[in-house]
Amino acid sequence: MKKSIVSILVLCLVFCSVFAAGNTEKAVAKYELALVTDANSIDDRGFNQGAWEGIEAYANENNISHQYYRPIEQSTEGYLVAIETAVNDGAKLVVCPGFLFETAIFKAQTMYPDVAFVLLDGVPNNNYTEYKTENNTYSIVFAEDQAGFLAGYAAVMEGYRNLGFFGAMAVPAVVRYGYGFVQGAEYAGEELGLKSGDILCKYMYTGTFDNLPENQTKAASWYQSGVECIFQCGVLDNVFAACESVGGEKMAIGVDLDQSANSEKVLTSAMKMLSKAVYDGITMFYGGNFPGGVNATLTINDDSVGLPMETSRFTNFSQADYELICSKMVDDVDGIISNMIRDTDASGNSIPLQTVKEAEKIVKVEEIK
């Protein structure tokens, strides 16, 4: 009996020693740069992946330790726990990708004043009741309307006249993509001398970022009814799968990152240069000029939105065409940027498209609910 008790005590001591050693090793581990994902993986073909690629690029070039942290749940509390873990692991700068982090960063920036934060696609706020960006936080949003404009312009110049915009939730970023898409198609129509109603565009929001079977069915029905090219914004798997199932000459347009590798049916992608934005933010941090307290909007003038021409599957829209329209946007020729409609009065699944419909003459928008 005594031997058994002694054996148990020895095993407990061994276990405790191993556990303590493991914890000690973890405690001393240091990762200067950290990414907290939105509970999805870093290869999500979206914000997590784009942000991580920016961190990796800078860290590998400068031999800086880095790590990513995946929260156990998609909530403010879950994000704060992951941020705390990153800080305890020695993070000097934490990147958080997406508007879902707005409230978490609002709280974390005061909880950890010695840690720098880069918030992508959002502005720190307390559930939309209070807004504040502390000196240790750099907030970045993008001119999605400009990226959407380029996608719509290119689609029409490529030869498409029957378009679709298939958005997820009607949050401001998605709204801006859609509004820009319609206006880009209109501008291209004007340059081509098309007449009123020569371009059609079905337009809808699904109300969710989830890829659901019914959304794929809806996208497929659009293609079957004559839509030639759909700009998907947040529901890529549904639209890409629908396009592939219908076949023929139908195409789709990706969003946020270059999604050409996802399907041979991807014509191009309306891109935010996420990796560049993160890389530049980290560069400024280590260069001693971190733009803390700034809520920045990155535009085509910052080379922060655009189309991936090298991987796009255009046959008519050329690199020269692309460079010309980009230069017009940068120079605001014809008020192309200053007169752009940016209505972001997004509420649930209902969006006020009347302002766009009234402004566009060549493009006939059909709102689908």
Describe the structure.
The model is unreliable at 1-28 (pLDDT under 50). Helix 5 runs parallel beside helix 6 and helix 7 packs across helix 8 (236-246). The radius of gyration is 24 Å and the shape is globular. By secondary structure, the chain is α/β, with parallel strands linked by helices. The longest helix has 27 residues, at 2-28. The chain contains eleven helices and 13 strands. It has two domains: 30-142, 3-Layer(aba) Sandwich (Rossmann fold), CATH 3.40.50; 144-271 and 306-367, 3-Layer(aba) Sandwich (Rossmann fold), CATH 3.40.50.2300. A seven-stranded mixed sheet has the order 12-10-9-8-6-7-13, sandwiched between helices.
Identify the notable features of this structure and list them briefly.
369 residues, 7-stranded mixed sheet, Rossmann fold, 2 domains, disordered N terminus
Q: Identify the strand order in the major beta sheet.
A: 12-10-9-8-6-7-13
Calculate Rg over CA atoms. 24 Å
Main CATH class of the largest domain: Alpha Beta
Q: How widely separated are the two ends?
A: 75 Å
**Which ranges are low-confidence, i.e. pLDDT below 50, for 5 or more consecutive residues?**
1-28
Total count of strands: 13
Category from helices, strands and their pairing:
alpha/beta
Share in β-strands: 15-25%
Q: DSSP helix count?
A: 11
Helix content: 40-55%
Q: Which geometry do the CA atoms define?
A: globular
Largest sheet: 7 strands, mixed
The CATH topology assignment of the largest domain is Rossmann fold
- Name of the CATH superfamily of the largest domain: Response regulator
Order of helices and strands: HEHEHEHEEHEHEHEHEEHEEHHE
How many domains in all? 2
Integer average pLDDT: 89
Second CATH tier, the architecture of the largest domain:
3-Layer(aba) Sandwich
